[in-house]
Amino acid sequence: MPIPRPEAPQLLDDGDIARLQELLDDLPEPLQPLDVSALDGFLCGLLLQPDTVDDDRLMRWVLDVEGRAPPAGCDVAPLRSLVLQRRAQLAAAIDARQWFDPWVFEMDEDIGPSQAVLPWVAGFAAAMERFPALLRIDDDRLLEPLALLYMHFDPADLEEADALGELIETLEPPRDLGEAVQDMVRSLMLIADVVRPIAVPSSNRGPRPRPGQRRRR
């Protein structure tokens, strides 16, 4: 009897994303939840941790940036369902090293690509702050993909990360939002190659894309 394949995670559409943002906005005070873009980056940061972060620990920080529990009677089940659906979708893409669309949204024409992706990157950085195991891995292969993500922050925010800051100074910023998003996704896949590599048959191996190729002259 053939082994049944696991069902592909259900993709969230624009209506689901809007509903998720509504549920986040409706959480009672004093909770300060992530918005959907920061949430997306946060989930990616958790999925790249060397150890699995369970659902309850994940939701604690989604619901409130300080990790406070929701008040009694607050039903977060619909919100939790959508969050876990998105996590499953992201996990499937990262595990298979397949492209996915991060929840990054275009802003006014005057907003540059770094400002547009900053909420997403801030969510990723929040995951690193709450769960720092990834950043404690001593592997030089992590520097460039992390630099391509953290380059969107103000340099003053990276004063304690000397090696990362020095590398960021050598990189050219993205020319547009599409390039910024492409760099983000590629960086996540390269981090995944370090944290949880997948076996690839030698006949299927090809050159892996490298981040950080746009150097300042």
CATH architecture annotation name: Up-down Bundle
CATH topology: Four Helix Bundle (Hemerythrin (Met), subunit A)
Full CATH superfamily name: YgfB uncharacterised protein family PF03695
Count of strand segments: 0
Number of helices: 8
Question: Which stretches are poorly predicted, pLDDT < 50 over at least 5 residues?
Answer: 1-6, 202-209
Coarse structural class: mainly alpha
Average pLDDT: 86
Could you describe the largest sheet, including whether it forms a barrel?
none
Radius of gyration: 18 Å
Approximate shape: globular
- How do the SSEs run, as a string of H and E? HHHHHHHH
Query: What is the count of distinct domains?
Result: 1
What is the CATH level 1 assignment? Mainly Alpha
Into which percent range does the helicity of residues fall? 40-55%
Binned strand content: under 5%
How would you characterize this protein structure?
The protein has eight helices and no strands. By secondary structure, it is mainly α. It has helices spanning 14-25, 36-47, 55-63, 77-96, 113-130, 143-150, 162-168, 177-195. The protein is globular, with a radius of gyration of 18 Å. Helix 2 (36-47) crosses helix 5, helix 5 runs parallel beside helix 8 and helix 6 (143-150) packs antiparallel against helix 8 (177-195). The protein has a single domain (14-196), classed as Up-down Bundle (Four Helix Bundle (Hemerythrin (Met), subunit A)).
